[in-house]
């Protein structure tokens, strides 16, 4: 099982991790930003200083074949063996692509994730979904391959800008919605404009535990893990469309807007309480603003949803819906008309 350490002493924990995972050579993957803002925080250890450093361009549009190939090439040309260890130091983009590079290099080497974004810490670094975007689709190529250890330290979050903070917060909100009412209430009450890092730390621990529990029960997403995909059927379509429209949208923003649509469907089809829909909507409206698109994009969005990995056939779109907070209904389908209506609801609500 994957070990998730909520660190109190980053360098001591890392030193310990490196001493218990046998390896011949060490490599560290970063993107340009995590290299600049985060690498120095772990650079006290000699082994880290001497590790092979691989740095790729930042941004989800670089979670692609070219970056993956450059990671493989570096490992190949710098003496990596089946016994080498890769540290992924970065946000979800880095832990996704680095995790997949490790899973596929020589049919699999070990890796350790050190998430440096809120989103990475509460979600992406944990649970073993790895991969890259391909053919205009999110995470189209990948593997389930858990990092040996995930080392979470909130020290990294201090350099995040507001939108990257909120992007991660959307996945926390998702964890609240699929788990229990008290977590959801705390998340809606948290002051996102004036962050109390002590409270945040507690919320992060609670959030990552929601993910750990679910992944432990269903690591390969046959069943309950589909609950972690709330907001993503429509959210991923928004995110992919934003790249073709050359207006890149952060993952968590797409998920937040996807959650609005999917809670609307939950209300319409599964009686999700109206007041909880409105409370969640008003938080998202206040914190995530608006994005502009018209009805002429609906067909393209629907085409993108046909590629969702939860779908059991090409003609039906699969959703995770809720009948209440913490009450997840898996393998729900919705008609094209209902889906378009949910997108209308979002656009009318956020003024897009
Ligand atoms: N595998 C999973 O289970 C899972 C879960 C959720 C999301 N994801 C994936 O994760 C990605 C989104 O993750 P993300 O939001 O972390 O994106 P990201 O990794 O692209 O990071 C966002 C931005 O923050 C920068 N950054 C990283 N650390 C920083 C720091 N400490 N301070 C300042 N800036 C920093 C990055 O360079 C980047 O520019 C998407 O590709 C999404 O599909 C995967
Ligand atoms: O861990 C999971 O399972 C998730 O679905 C978490 C999501 O937040 C994450 O964005 C994941 O990468 C989506 O996976 P996909 O299978 O829909 O591509
Ligand atoms: Zn996500």
TrEMBL record:
Record-annotated 3-dehydroquinate synthase C-terminal domain positions: 168-311
UniProt GO molecular function: 3-dehydroquinate synthase activity; metal ion binding; nucleotide binding
Pathway of action: Metabolic intermediate biosynthesis; chorismate biosynthesis; chorismate from D-erythrose 4-phosphate and phosphoenolpyruvate: step 2/7
Subcellular location: Cytoplasm
Domain of life: Bacteria
Catalytic activity field: 7-phospho-2-dehydro-3-deoxy-D-arabino-heptonate = 3-dehydroquinate + phosphate
Entries under PANTHER family matching the protein: 3-DEHYDROQUINATE SYNTHASE (PTHR43622), 3-DEHYDROQUINATE SYNTHASE, CHLOROPLASTIC (PTHR43622:SF7)
Protein's name according to its UniProt entry: 3-dehydroquinate synthase
Organism encoding this protein: Dysgonomonas alginatilytica
């Amino acid at each position: 099982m994957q070990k998730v350490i909520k660190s109190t002493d980053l360098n001591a924990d890392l030193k310990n991790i490196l001493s218990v995972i046998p390896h011949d050579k060490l490599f560290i993957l970063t993107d340009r930003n995590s290299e600049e803002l985060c690498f120095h925080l772990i650079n006290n250890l000699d082994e880290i200083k001497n590790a092979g450093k691989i740095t790729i361009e930042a941004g989800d549009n670089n979670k692609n074949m070219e970056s993956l190939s450059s990671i493989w090439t570096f490992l190949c040309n710098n003496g990596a063996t089946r016994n080498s260890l890769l540290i992924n130091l970065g946000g979800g983009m880095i832990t996704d692509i680095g995790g997949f590079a490790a899973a596929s290099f020589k049919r699999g080497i070990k890796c350790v994730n050190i998430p440096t974004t809120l989103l990475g810490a509460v979600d992406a670094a944990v649970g073993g979904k790895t991969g890259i975007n391909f053919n205009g689709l999110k995470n189209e190529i990948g593997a389930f391959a858990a990092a040996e250890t995930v080392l979470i330290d909130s020290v990294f979050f201090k350099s995040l800008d507001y939108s990257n903070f909120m992007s991660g917060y959307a996945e926390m909100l998702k964890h609240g919605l699929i788990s229990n009412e008290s977590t959801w209430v705390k998340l809606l009450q948290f002051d996102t404009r004036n962050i109390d890092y002590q409270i945040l730390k507690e919320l992060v621990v609670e959030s990552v535990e929601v993910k750990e529990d679910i992944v432990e029960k269903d690591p390969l997403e046959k069943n309950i893990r589909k609950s972690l995909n709330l907001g993503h059927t429509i959210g991923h379509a928004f995110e992919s469309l934003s790249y073709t429209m050359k207006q890149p949208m952060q993952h968590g923003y797409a998920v937040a807007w996807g959650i609005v649509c999917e809670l609307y469907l939950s209300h319409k089809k599964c009686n999700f309480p109206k007041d909880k829909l409105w409370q969640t909507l008003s938080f998202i409206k206040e914190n995530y603003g608006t994005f502009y698109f018209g009805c002429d994009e609906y067909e393209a969005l629907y085409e993108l949803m046909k590629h969702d990995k939860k779908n059991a056939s090409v003609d039906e779109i699969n959703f995770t819906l809720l009948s209440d907070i913490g009450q997840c209904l898996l393998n729900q389908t919705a008609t094209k008309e209902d889906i378009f209506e949910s997108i209308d609801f979002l656009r009318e609500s956020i003024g897009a």
